[in-house]
Amino acid sequence: xxxxxSNIQVNDHIGxxxxxxxxxxxxxxxxxxxAWNAGPLLPRAISIFDVKEHSxxxxxxxxxxxxxxxxxxxxxxxxxxxxxxGNGFPQLTGRVALVGGGIGVAPFYYAARQYKSADLYLGFxxxxxxxxxxxxxxxxxxxxxxxxxxxxxxxxxYDLVIACGPSGMLKAVQMKQAAEGSRTNVYISVENKxxxxxxxxxxxxxxxxxxxVQTCTDGPVFRAEEVTLL
Length: 230
Ligand code: FES
Fold this sequence. Notes:
Blueprint: E1 2-9, E2 14-20, E3 30-34, E4 44-47, E5 50-51, E6 55-61, H1 65-72, E7 78-85, E8 96-101, H2 108-114, E9 119-124, H3 131-135, E10 140-145, E11 160-164, H4 167-180, E12 185-189, E13 205-208, E14 211-214, H5 215-218, E15 221-223, E16 227-228
Parallel strand pairs: 8-9, 8-11, 9-10, 11-12
Antiparallel strand pairs: 1-2, 1-7, 2-6, 3-4, 3-7, 5-6, 12-15, 13-14, 13-16
Bound molecules: FE2/S2 (inorganic) cluster.
Binding site for [2Fe-2S] cluster: 196, 201, 204, 216
Pfam family, one: DHODB_Fe-S_bind
Family: Belongs to the PyrK family.
């Protein structure tokens, strides 16, 4: 069990949770969080927002009962966390664009903090959040509200593009890459329902060009052209 250091209600459906933790993790990896002791709810997979010396931060969206319980956590309460899981982002090098849609912006704070010359592209369907905090980390930040953040960048301006967001946005990334025909390395971080996070239950399987693979252990970060999104 880990103790909650703080749980900031960023707005009425976004929370920023900081918990004590001995282990850290790399940008793009995730933890399984469980804020309840009883009931059938599975732990929730939440990506790392930032890692500090003795704590980890998670930015999450309230989408159901599990995340609602996370949102209610108070300072000093305990939470079960396990991780880190997943492969994380590829090495950030050269000209890098980090493209987040909605709560998919979360893993790019830590990534931008580690690689300050990255350009950040943040897309929100409504009121943006934490833009000032992101702006302190990145070389530049572009924000789109209500449209498509993908319209703000040209892949070939970059050596590496990493996108994280809803499935519709990730499919648009795949189509944009195909349409632009660019040689840029494009990766997507796939959100899938997870249960075990260790490759055993197959709940998170996804079609990869090499066959079925598990998002939790083989991903969640894949080359955009190598996976089929439903
Ligand atoms: Fe069980 Fe991925 S969550 S195999």
